[in-house]
Amino acid sequence: MSFGPHLFLALLEGTVTAFVLAVTALGLSLVFGVMRIVNVAHGEFFMLGAVLAWFCASLVGTPIAGFLFAMIAAPAVVGALALAADRLILRRIEYHPEGTIVATIGLLYILQQAVLTLYGPDARPVSPPVYFTLTFPWFGYSGYKLVVAAISALLLAAVWWLLTRTTLGLYMRAAQQDLEMAQAFGVPARRVYATVFALGAMLAAAAGVLVVPIQQAHYLMGLDPLLLSFIVVIIGGLGSVKGTLVAAFVVGISDGVVSVFFSPTLAKIVATLLVAGVLVVRPGGLFGGDRA
Amino acid sequence: MSGRGAARLLALHLAVLALLFLAQFALPAYHHTNVARIMVLAAYAVGYNILLGYTGLMSLGHAMFFAAGMYGAGLPVYYLGFGAASALGAGIAAGVVLAALFGLMALRTSGVSFLIVSLMFAQAFYLASLYFNEITLGDQGFILSDRLAPLSVGDASVGFHEPAVKYNGALLLFAACLLLGLGLRLSPIGRVLIAIRENEERARLLGYDSYRYKLLSLVVSGGVAAAAGASYALLFSYAGSTFASILFSIYPLLWTLLGGVGTTLGPLIGTGLMFYLVDVASGFTSAYLLVVGVALVVLILWFPQGILGTIRARWLPWLP
Amino acid sequence: MAAVAPLLETEALCKRFGGLTAVSDVSLRLAEGEIRAIIGPNGAGKTTLVGIVCGRLEPTSGRVLYRGREITAMRPWERLVQGIVYTFQVTSIFKGLSCYENVALPAQRRLMQGIAGRLALDERAIEARVGAALEAVGLADQAERRADALAYGHQRLLELAMALAAEPQLLILDEPTQGLAESEIERFCELVRAIARRATVLLIEHNMSVVLDLAERVTVMDAGAIIAEGTPAQIERDPAVQKAYLGR
């Protein structure tokens, strides 16, 4: 395959990656933005979504039924888990920034190793709910991947609608701007925090469900999405749907292109150094000047 | 801290070291190597504690300093035939330089930003060690034993595979790092670092350039971590990418938290305890890292001061 | 005018925060050995002004001169070494440390000369200075207590002890009597008079009786600018001052 088609393939792959990344990163971004905390276990919520999807598929007959079941059940279960983590751990330490990082690192290992124990170390495939090929003159492309992109776009739109058109969204934006003021106006901070944390986890889980027919479910699969989501959130800005989207596309597509033409490891090295660079150079640090 | 107080603390620490020295004659073979390993890793934790416990800066990137020492010593031995002493020097130098460069860039940030920047740099270092795996042999790593010349002690030559060399080499390293940490803690510089930890702006307005002190702390912390890494490579004859991974940045945080942040002897206790916890757990299950996760959550929820920190707060306020 | 050069001089100092002008064209002259009070309603820019003098804040424009030398760009820690010492409006001490350690930090600064002086110091020299500072404010018996175990009034005294240990030549006190009981305020005034024998004192105060008691000269600020300057008696009678305080 010559350069042109190769590039086209890379762009297609990058676009699909970008959409899924946007959904995952948006979850992290909302938690960062509204709650001012870093959830290092975010990637494990993604992994749980994928593993639960495999589980749902093994319970139900057809791939499409499994997929639909998973799209409902996985985020629900992961959301409940996130609520528990918020109640039992994060609230107790009062969302202290460095303490939350330590606690969520702990949560990361607990979730990861629990899955290792119950699910095992193997990577297991899940059949895609729909299977068709798009035939281009140079290569065939999996139709399901485009379905993934479409559903991701729907999820992003749904979150945007939630943020701009519902009371919860209003509370979230208010809490992000100025928590004290918001509380003075009657915004129930605790409940908003719990809801946002659950929402972030559910988005990650949904992304996991979408991705698992492409990637296979494995107990270590949460680490890459975590790193990429970090990168997107820090570059794109906290809590901003638009910023996350744009950054996800920049990161997703360039990651796709660099991975195809150079090496995935090199792509990751560049990405991590870029994030560090942004943080060092940006005058306000992580939260300064990042109003949605 | 009067002169007599400092002497008493020194005596306490020397007693601990003496105990460690004597222990080698009583320990069975399996625990003998374990304790040697623990002492090297505890030195790593001592280095980490200088930055977190004394200066109040939490980093998630110390694995890059440990690995800089490890590769800084291991690669010259493997490829250039360096002897142990020069390899150790090279490893420490690598760590110090890396820490200085990192500090110059990253100390413009603080708190969570600093934490993430350190994590990202360390991750880039780890990925680079995988990317250049023709040299570093990546995850698999390389063994030093046939390339490392034995130590010459007087007329005799003692190989690094000897248990006595491993144990006493490790003890020597740990002793040096522990006493360096204690000395720093009791020095005027130590007092400034602790003030910066408690209230940085106040310290600045009382005459101290906090940036310079933080940089110094980071360089010492990185240097000690690198010394531990270099010693690990030389004593246990192995260098590999796993020591540069995120888990190896999380470990010293865990060990320090468990033992007691901001105490001189806490890192030793935390490292030893956690080493054995993981050791025992890995006998039962391949998911032994669960212990790490649970320990972190339990510590942060209920015992943020750690073992020695709690003891100090309740009963022994004079403990450094 | 003055035959002797002033200890501290500001020239047309301005500080703007975005659209807000906190300090506007302030030119102040402080003679050595003076006790000067700065008064004014809330938001007049007093804390901002002294913040620029001690180095916490950078001015938008204007200059600060100390002993005739320009120090506008000098960093806060260097100013401390020059003798400019600031105590905070909201007590800023090392809460988790003992009173001894709180005072030892500024006390050791002058002793830390060169590399050797930073690595190890004779603790007895530090002990002597800490003891003297704590004795002066009456907290000598509290040396081993944790700073946050002290009552608020005593915490303020601790902060004063810390300032003393730093050997100030220009001591800037930002609303030092706020939150103190009557007896504590009296004690405090005695202390300031004793300090003023060796140092120049610049004092931001709301408590008018303290101002009348201590200050030799008073500078009045409002909305970022100096509106009056004179002896306490002159200021009391000044119509512009009365308007600023009462005409609101």
- Low-pLDDT residue spans of chain B: none
Tell me the helix content of chain C: 25-40%
Structural class estimated from helices and strands of chain B: mainly alpha
Principal-axes shape call of chain B = globular
Describe the structure.
The complex is a heterotrimer of chains A (292), B (320) and C (248). With 292 residues, chain A is mostly helical. Chain A starts with a helix and ends in an 11-residue tail after the last helix. In chain A, strand 1 (133-135) and strand 2 (140-142) form a beta hairpin. In chain A, strands 1-2 form a two-stranded antiparallel sheet. Chain A contains 11 helices and 2 strands. The model of chain A is unreliable at 288-292 (pLDDT under 50). Chain A is globular, with a radius of gyration of 19 Å. With 320 residues, chain B is mainly α. Chain B has 14 helices and 4 strands. In chain B, strands 1-4 form a two-stranded antiparallel ribbon. In chain B, strand 2 and strand 3 (156-158) form a beta hairpin. The model of chain B has no long low-confidence stretch (mean pLDDT 90). With 248 residues, chain C is an alpha/beta fold. Chain C has helices at 46-54, 76-82, 99-107, 114-119, 123-137, 152-165, 182-196, 208-214, 232-237, 239-246; strands at residues 8-17, 20-30, 35-39, 61-66, 69-70, 84-87, 170-174, 200-204, 217-222, 225-230. Chain C has a 6-stranded mixed beta sheet, with helices on both faces. In chain C, helix 3 packs across helix 5, helix 3 (99-107) runs parallel beside helix 6 (152-165) and helix 5 packs across helix 6. The longest helix of chain C is centred in the middle third of the chain and has 15 residues, at 123-137. At the A-B interface, helix 4, helix 9 and helix 11 of A face helix 5, helix 11 and helix 13 of B.
Task: Describe the secondary structure blueprint for this structure.
The complex is a heterotrimer of chains A (about 290), B (about 325) and C (about 250).
Chain A: H1 3-35, H2 42-59, H3 63-90, H4 97-119, E1 133-135, E2 140-142, H5 143-165, H6 167-177, H7 179-184, H8 189-215, H9 223-236, H10 241-261, H11 264-281
Antiparallel strand pairs in A: 1-2
Chain B: H1 3-23, H2 29-54, H3 63-80, H4 84-106, H5 111-131, H6 133-136, E1 142-143, E2 151-153, E3 156-158, H7 163-186, H8 188-198, H9 200-205, H10 210-236, E4 238-239, H11 247-259, H12 266-284, H13 290-302, H14 306-314
Antiparallel strand pairs in B: 1-4, 2-3
Helix pairs in contact in B: 1-7, 2-7, 2-10, 2-11, 2-12, 3-4, 3-10, 4-10, 7-8, 7-10, 8-10, 11-12, 11-13, 11-14
Chain C: E1 8-17, E2 20-30, E3 35-39, H1 46-54, E4 61-66, E5 69-70, H2 76-82, E6 84-87, H3 99-107, H4 114-119, H5 123-137, H6 152-165, E7 170-174, H7 182-196, E8 200-204, H8 208-214, E9 217-222, E10 225-230, H9 232-237, H10 239-246
Parallel strand pairs in C: 3-8, 3-9, 6-7, 7-8
Antiparallel strand pairs in C: 1-2, 1-4, 4-5, 9-10
